[in-house]
Design goal:
Layout lengths: L19 H15 L7 H9 L7
């Protein structure tokens, strides 16, 4: 094959169609589901127990 013949066009990679926003969103979602849920803050749960609601007059 002579060197003057054109080569076949390269096929774009699979990631070429993914936007940076979609890529970052997928990474954030993967991180969110891979971590265990946070334990509730003890200071906020204690405050909620001591709050008493007044009845309307």
């Amino acid at each position: 094959m002579p060197a003057t013949e054109p080569k076949a066009p390269r096929r774009p990679s699979a990631l070429a169609g993914v936007s940076m926003r979609d890529l970052l969103a997928s990474c954030a979602a993967a991180e969110a589901v891979s971590r265990p849920p946070r334990e509730p803050d003890p200071t906020t749960t204690v405050e909620k127990r001591h709050v008493q609601h007044r009845e309307a007059a």
